Amino acid sequence: MTGLVTGWGVLSAAGDSVTELLAAVRAGAVVGVDVRDRFDEPLPTAQAPAIADFDVRRLLGRKGTSFLDRATALAMVACGRALADGGLTPDDDNRHRVGVVLGTTTGSLKSTMDFSRETLVQDKPYLVNPVLFPNTVMNCASGQAAIRYGLRGVNATVAGGPLAFLYALRYALNALRRGYVDALLVGGVEEYTPNTAWAAELTGAGPAGEAAAVYLLRRPTPGLTEAPRAQVLAVATGFQPEPSADGLAGCVRRALATAKVRPADVWAVASGDLDADSLSEVVPAAAQRWSVRPALGDCQSVTGALALGVLLGRYAEDPDARGRPALIVGRSRDGAVAAAVVRG
Amino acid sequence: MHRVVVTGLGPVSGIGIGVNEFTAGLRSGRSAAAPITSFDASGFPHHWAGEVPAFRPEALLRRLRVADWGRSALFAAAAARLAAMDAGLSLPATDPARVGAVVGTTSGESTVVEQLTAELVAGGYPAMSAEALRQAPAERLSYAVSAELGLAGESVTLTTACSASNYAIGYAYDLLCWGEADVMVAGGADSVCRWAHAGFYRLGALTERACRPFDRDRSGILTGEGGAALVLETLKHAQDRGARIYAEVLGYGVNCDAHHMVAPNEESVAACMRLAQENAGVKPEDIDYISTHGTGTPANDLCEARAIRAVFGDRVPPVSSIKSMLGHTMGAASGFGAIATTLGIRHGFLPPTINWANPDPELSWIDPVPNTARPATVRVAQNNGFAFGGNNAITIFGAIR
Fold first, then answer.
1. Would the CB atoms of A139 and B389 count as touching at under 8 Å?
2. Among B2, B46, B162, B193, the one annotated catalytic
3. Segment holding B134, helix H or strand E
4. Beta partners for B226?
5. CB–CB contacts below 8 A, A to B
6. Is residue B293 annotated as part of the catalytic site, yes or no?
């Protein structure tokens, strides 16, 4: 089973479209947004690849948005845009066949740590605000998006940090293949907070980025009138903690074989951060390489989703690219590997 | 489509570690409830939980270095090791890429995040330790399982809160059905933590010492912890290697309330039961036992009982809640439910709901298997799991035929 990408909702430091995303990644320099006045706490840097001017109340209204954390709000906006862009209006006839699959790293680290901090600094450890408790669960964004848009189908959150979007895509393809749903919002979200900024700084992963990217993935059916932006042909994943050249390459080979795509036909490879030699044994040297991290920072679970956005941007601007297969790949520091094959 | 069976069980719980101890715990109605030791709970009005004080990861793990992993990852890996041993799996597998891991969790490495918070309070953000930050990502729960057992196949962590283990079992079942793996280790893990204790207390959902699901005077949950793992494999793979088969995974269902972040919804919980039964190819009258979500809060148990009534009509099978014994182990909860269900099928008994004293006239159709395990033939059983975010997931198991 494959899935058709029929809509997108992308928010990043580069802007709210795949065109702007592609332009920033093409430029290759970190997109710096002034973050000095955002928090009371000090930040490691004055500028970061964070989303500028995001106001959830302006975008979603006051109702139901008061206690949302930023990651949840970003995800909800991205989900709404992907639904609208894909022309899908949830109603009582279809809502139980439409769902959400989002990637995550730790959920909102800020929400959880703020809540945890209250138990340490208040006079009584239980003087926490119960309204904020649901923000500490990692499925908060997908649950809130389902509530907002009335989506009763498969609803899942998949942890995977840099690989989370690829895992989410694979989980989604399975749900479509098994006939559990007809359409899924699939994506990832990471917020920029002092917590993520310092985490990236202290672990040497920085700068921390911020983005939400969600795609409407539909089951290919004869009646579907929307022209797809791309098709997701296959996703393969694996775990190869021993340093071996074969880890990611083997995963890519499996994904290509499942997709029935010849390695020589791969036209582009997109990832968070791809070193030049990686995959040289599998993918043609002439294939384009796109890395989102130099421009958008460490976006963790939304990295793969941004990589897909870059490819969609390329397919949209380059008629010669249409119909040619591309890869999204990732590798985590623990040794997990994943690869998706798409065709625009 | 391959048939999928359960061949190994790995419980790491407050009522027993390993399948023999856990089975004895279920049969005798043991309770894990005790004063909290994993954090200073002295400032809380309620300070009991279902911890696993006997957990010594170094005694169970063979490959992982304990210092490299958080407590939840260690629960997951230890449970997986026990399950693999129980299954008699020879590891590493002939083709490690055909064996994978799926782990469910609510709060991932909650104790690691609490450590980071304590460092932050003491010294500001720059005082957070890089080592703890590297341990915090939730995906490390499944990576711990894969690294401990030498698995090279899919390794994924599903963070769908308190139904996450059922999500994990269901996804593993799909991969096996479809022939994309031969063996999958599936389950869940979570750790008792201060912030969840505080949050449930402030929601008014925390009981003082005894969780009493379906009792008239039920007053809430006890937080709990542990790791639950099941070895699932295709029937053919199990038969080819002469494995002992506990039960068959018949199917599962997931849906979403899309209604409220914390309040369960009767209508979609019932819909999830129907989805699971349809996916498993069974009818309500086929089901001999339901391992309930059964948190012991007034709201959950009423909602769940009504949904059961809506689906099962006048023929409601016996139900029980093992949370009465374990506490609410969050992301591991439906994994423990799956293990208990599997053991009930295999050994012919129904796990009890302990601490039960008075029937609730509002739940007159519920037989909670009060206080003592009951001998019974269980051919088909349903295992419920519901979660914050409206994430419902139900698995269905059957006796092997």
1. yes
2. B162
3. helix B130-135
4. B190
5. 248
6. yes
CA triple B263-B269-B273, angle to 5 deg? 160
Q: Tell me which of B47, B193, B293, B303 is the catalytic residue.
A: B293
CA distance A253 to A247: 10
pTM of the model: 0.98
ipTM of the predicted assembly exceeds 0.85 = yes
Cβ atoms of B222 and B206 within 8 Å: the answer is yes
The answer to whether A120 contacts chain B (CB < 8 Å) is yes
Helix (H, G, I), strand (E, B) or coil at A48: strand
Of A119, A137, A147, the CB nearest to B198: A119
Say how many Å lie between the first and final Cα of chain A, rounded: 17
The pLDDT profile of chain B, 401 residues, written as one tens digit per residue, is 999 999 999 999 999 999 999 999 999 999 999 999 999 999 999 999 999 999 999 999 999 999 999 999 999 999 999 999 999 999 999 999 999 999 999 999 999 999 999 999 999 999 999 999 999 999 999 999 999 999 999 999 999 999 999 999 999 999 999 999 999 999 999 999 999 999 999 999 999 999 999 999 999 999 999 999 999 999 999 999 999 999 999 999 999 999 999 999 999 999 999 999 999 999 999 999 999 999 999 999 999 999 999 999 999 999 999 999 999 999 999 999 999 999 999 999 999 999 999 999 999 999 999 999 999 999 999 999 999 999 999 999 999 98
CB B250 within 8 A of CB B283: no
